């Protein structure tokens, strides 16, 4: 039986690339979507075309009160589609970006980022512990902005910094179950994240490329394979690590 990975926000962007990359490693995949069910179902078909089982479930990661019900839905779909009762890996990918300077960030924006980027992954991992297999793993997602600073991302990057600390604590406390916990920190990537600014703003794209050691802005394909690697036995001795995948941005 194949191992199973649960990837939040797997219907598009980096999450889609992660899900497909994981499937190419021979794992079955459950993805979540917030509102784009059609796109999620298309990803399921792509994964099935690779010879792996897949399913999509609706989840708003900003609503922690829904996580008990979601865990129940995962248990049901595991039995129905995969003939299993556990997932092996949780990838906490789903998120949003809000561009606002420190002086202009509203409490509403802060709370939205807190709920989606930190509170959501914190309690989703907690609620899925009973259905996460011993010897499995959690992959959290951070950002290069937790290391280097661009004006306009104070709140967003702070939440990701909190995720990096949480990752070390999860690794420490879940290690007794053989569960590995790591965090991947992408640099600037050409996706529709944050309104597609990095992808669509040619001037910004060139500026970021000019301060990146490998001379270009990142692509989704640069990230998904790293996450997929962490969901394999090849990464069995890696835990509590922050792995930046930025092409050497801002070094």
Please explain how this structure is put together:
By secondary structure, the protein is α/β, with parallel strands linked by helices. It has a single domain, classed as 3-Layer(aba) Sandwich (Rossmann fold), CATH 3.40.50. 43% of the residues lie in helices and 17% in strands. It is built from eight helices and seven strands; from the N terminus they run E-H-E-H-E-H-E-H-E-H-E-H-H-H-E. It has helices at 13-24, 37-49, 67-82, 107-128, 154-174, 197-200, 202-210, 221-230; strands at residues 4-7, 28-33, 54-58, 87-92, 132-141, 180-186, 242-245. The protein has a seven-stranded parallel sheet with strand order 3-2-1-4-5-6-7, sandwiched between helices. Strand 1, helix 1 (13-24) and strand 2 form a beta-alpha-beta unit. Helix 1 (13-24) packs parallel to helix 2, helix 1 (13-24) packs across helix 8 (221-230) and helix 4 packs parallel to helix 5 (154-174). The protein is globular. The N and C termini lie far apart (43 Å). The model has no long low-confidence stretch (mean pLDDT 95).
Secondary structure layout:
Elements lengths: L3 E4 L5 H12 L3 E6 L3 H13 L4 E5 L8 H16 L4 E6 L14 H22 L3 E10 L12 H21 L5 E7 L10 H4 L1 H9 L10 H10 L11 E4 L6
Parallel strand pairs: 1-2, 1-4, 2-3, 4-5, 5-6, 6-7
Helix pairs in contact: 1-2, 1-8, 4-5
Keywords:
globular, seven-stranded parallel sheet, 7 strands, 251 residues, Rossmann fold
| Residue runs with pLDDT of under 50 for 5 or more positions | none
H/E order of the elements?
Answer: EHEHEHEHEHEHHHE
CATH class: Alpha Beta
CATH architecture: 3-Layer(aba) Sandwich
What is the terminal separation in angstroms?
A: 43 Å
Largest pleated sheet? 7 strands, parallel
């Amino acid at each position: 039986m194949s191992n199973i990975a649960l990837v939040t926000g797997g219907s598009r962007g980096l999450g889609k690339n992660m899900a497909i990359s994981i499937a190419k490693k021979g794992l079955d995949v459950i993805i979540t979507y917030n509102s784009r069910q059609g796109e999620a179902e298309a990803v399921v078909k792509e994964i099935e075309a690779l010879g792996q089982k897949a399913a999509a479930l609706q989840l708003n990661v900003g609503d922690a009160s829904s996580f008990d019900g979601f865990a129940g839905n995962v248990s049901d779909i595991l039995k129905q589609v995969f003939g299993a009762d556990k997932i092996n890996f949780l990838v906490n990918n789903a998120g949003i970006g809000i561009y606002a300077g420190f002086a202009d960030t509203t409490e509403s924006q802060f709370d939205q980022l807190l709920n989606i980027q930190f509170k959501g992954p914190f309690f989703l991992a907690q609620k899925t512990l009973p259905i996460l297999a011993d010897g499995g793993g959690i992959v959290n997602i951070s950002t290069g902005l937790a290391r280097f600073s661009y004006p306009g991302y104070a709140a967003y990057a702070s939440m990701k910094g909190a995720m990096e600390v949480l990752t070390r604590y999860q690794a420490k406390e879940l290690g007794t179950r053989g569960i590995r916990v790591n965090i991947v920190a992408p640099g600037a990537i050409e996706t529709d994240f944050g309104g597609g600014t990095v992808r669509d703003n040619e001037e910004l794209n060139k500026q970021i490329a000019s301060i990146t050691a490998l001379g270009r802005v990142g692509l989704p394909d640069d990230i998904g394979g790293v996450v997929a690697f962490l969901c394999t036995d090849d990464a069995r001795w890696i835990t509590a690590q922050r792995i930046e995948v930025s092409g050497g941005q801002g070094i």
